Amino acid sequence: MAGPILVVDDDLFFRQLATDLLSRRGHRVVAVENATLALEEVARATFDLVLTDVVMPGVDGFALTARLRERDPEQEVILVSTRDDVQGSEVALRLGVADCLVKPIEEADLLLAVDRAMERAQLRHERARLQDENLEFARFHNLQQRCLELLSHPDLEWLQERVIADLGAVCDAQSAALWVVDDRGDLALRSYRGLLDKQFLPEKMSPEGPLSLRLREAAPWLARDERSPVLYVPLVAAGEVMGLAQLSDPLTGDFRTEHTRDAKVLADFAAVGVKNGRKLMALQRLGLRDRDTAAYNLSYFTDYASKEIYKARRYGRTFSLLTFSIDNLPLVRVRLGAQDAKKAVRGIIKALSKIIRDSDVIAKASDQEFYLLLPETDFFGAMMFVRRAVAAVRDEPDVQDVEQRLPLALVGGASTFPKDGEDFDELVHRCRRRMDERRASLQRRLMLDGLPFWDEVDLLLGTPNSPRLPTDDRAEPSRRGKVADVLFDELQVEIARELVRDPGSRGLLYVGGPEIRADLPLAVGLEQAPPDLSSRIYLLGRRVDLESHAALTPVFLEGDERVARHEFILWLSESASYALIQRRGRGATWGFHTSDTAVVDGLISKLQAEYDLQPY
Which helix (H) or strand (E) holds 232? Predict the structure, then answer.
């Protein structure tokens, strides 16, 4: 059926005549008596043709035509008038009307003019439809190309960046973020772009709970925050959740139906691409492992590290690199044989594999040296991992079997991006420097590893007649002898200031003495500390008047004479390591203090074991 026609004339007879005549030809006709009503009708519906009188009360036909052309420059208009000077007039030509008819109008003339105008309108409709189809085809073709590219590039890092870029493009979104399922089944933030603030993006989300139903439906859903509409797009492949994308800040001000439709199509292909990328990564890892130890080879590790450096720079993240060396492996090979040397190496890798996360990577750098990469791990976390790693190695049966005949000289070092360097070589260099420091440490030179806490304290304190402590230019300084009576209190004041100055720094602090009092300098100094201190702080001793403290955890040790005779401060953090142990006597105070990280870490570990304190 032909499109609707609007007849505008203040003459009732002409309106009825035109309506009857055009209706018989199959046209739908709406007739009104003035321009005001005509504009109201045009606002509600679209008309292929407007047939209007020129001379009408109020707004005349010329003004109405001008208003109609403002709304639609291609609107078909036929002017009707009793004045024969309207035909070919300058105003009519300027307005670009389809035709001008003079009353009284012959039926044949009216129908001919209407047929011509409606034919032009139909041609424009057809052209617009073809243009829309071409645009839709181009849009679909573009979407198809994007989908095929997601399937043709199995590199997971490339995919994660490309998915949010493509989703943002097809949905006209200025901001996008992507969470991809990790090896533990959580959705981990992998990439983001645009106007988003990272601090408001959760690093991890559980796919269970309230989010589970939405994800299982595998259909995009729309939400709104205070700033912008947000479109969430799940990535689901064969019922398996692979990720979740968040799109916001649409250029059009809101997300349209076609945005949701295209996002769904792209997300389905992206989910398959991510799934394939994860499978390929698993196969690469299997094919790039050392045959004897199952650790990755160095070429794969350096490639993996370079990608981690890129991500850390791109998203402001941190990661840590660890190196471990069996310094006396050649001696083990000579004395015990090659099989026992291999057994020791396999045991170490087996022990490390038990305590690492799925995202951590172990590589074999040489026969006696290994690298570990720990994503999203700061320097303090790396130090704690070194401690756990050494303990895990000592507990491994294969290693214990070898060490019964010849102890292994295992040493580890850690470095963190970007604190210790911004490329792989710098990080490795820093690790080896810290390994050298541990080799030269008093911990190794005095063979303190096997001593219980208080036995080590007695050895380190010694007596005035004890020999001097061994020194090494590579090691941090350690001293014992007479110390000032006020040193213990002054150090607490300085440490409290440092903790308040940098509350986000992670660390462990143990302060022990005969009594736990509310007037201890550390307790007083931390009264105004923020409640979210990242360091864990413990006071050990006999309870006096300190019941609770926002920043401190008291550990009451009643009747322990060894604590009653000593005072100590053990502090290990991302930026500092220090130990002070002192024994007050009738004369001067006798003490030991050091900034040797290995000694401080060893003392803390043994103190935790002595009093069953929870490790960090």
Answer: strand 229-237
pLDDT score of 495: 92
In this prediction, the residues of the chain whose per-residue pLDDT falls under 50 are 1
The Cα 319–Cα 304 span in angstroms is: 12
The overall longest dimension of the chain from CA atoms, in Å, is 134
Rounded CA gap, 364 and 347, in Å? Answer: 13
Give one DSSP letter per residue of 12-35, joined into a string.
HHHHHHHHHHHHHTT--EEEESSH
Return the CATH architecture of domain 453-611: 2-Layer Sandwich (3.30)
Kindly tell me the number of DSSP H helices and DSSP E strands found in the chain.
20, 22
Single out the residue of 392, 391, 395, 390 nearest to residue 410, CA to CA.
390
Beta-carbon count within 10 A of 115 CB: 12
Entry pTM: 0.61
List the one residue out of 418, 416, 422, 345 whose CA is nearest residue 374: 416
Instruction: Give residue 75's pLDDT.
Output: 87
Give the pLDDT score at 477: 80
Q: What is the pLDDT of residue 504?
A: 86
**pLDDT given at position 98:** 73
Amino acid sitting at position 61: G
Q: Residues 601, 572: contact at Cβ < 8 Å?
A: yes
CB 18 within 8 A of CB 27: no
Q: How far apart are CA 443 and CA 462, in angstroms?
A: 15
Rounded to whole angstroms, the Cα distance separating 167 from 266 reads 7
Single-letter amino acid, residue 54 = V
d(CA 446, CA 606): 16
Q: Which two tokens stand for residue 331?
A: 């001696």
Supply φ then ψ for residue 513, to 5 degrees.
Answer: -175, 180
From first CA to last CA, the distance across the chain in angstroms is: 79
Are the C-beta atoms of residues 233 and 267 closer than 8 Å to each other?
yes
> Cα–Cα distance between 113 and 117 in angstroms, integer?
6
Distance CA 460, CA 471 (A): 13
Task: Please report the pLDDT score of residue 105 as a whole number.
Answer: 85
> Which structure tokens are listed for 474?
């590579």
Order of strands across the sheet that contains 76-81: 29-32, 5-8, 49-53, 76-81, 99-102
Strands (E), 469-574: 478-483, 507-516, 536-543, 553-556, 566-573
Q: Give the residue among 46, 41, 52 at the shortest CA–CA distance from 10.
A: 52
Domain 153-287 fold is Beta-Lactamase (3.30.450)
| Residue appearing with tokens 């949905």 | 171
Q: Is the dihedral of CA 601, 604, 609, 614 positive or negative?
A: negative
Residue 411: phi and psi, rounded to 5, are -135, 140
Tokens of 481: 């002898």
**Does residue 418 have a cis bond before it (omega within 30 degrees)?**
yes
Superfamily for domain range 298-440: Reverse transcriptase/Diguanylate cyclase domain (3.30.70.270)
pLDDT attached to residue 592: 92
Q: Which fold has domain 5-125?
A: Rossmann fold (3.40.50)
Residues in the chain: 616
Q: Where are the domains of the chain?
A: 5-125, 153-287, 298-440, 453-611
Relative to beta strand 478-483, strand 589-594 is: antiparallel
**How much is the pLDDT for 7?**
92
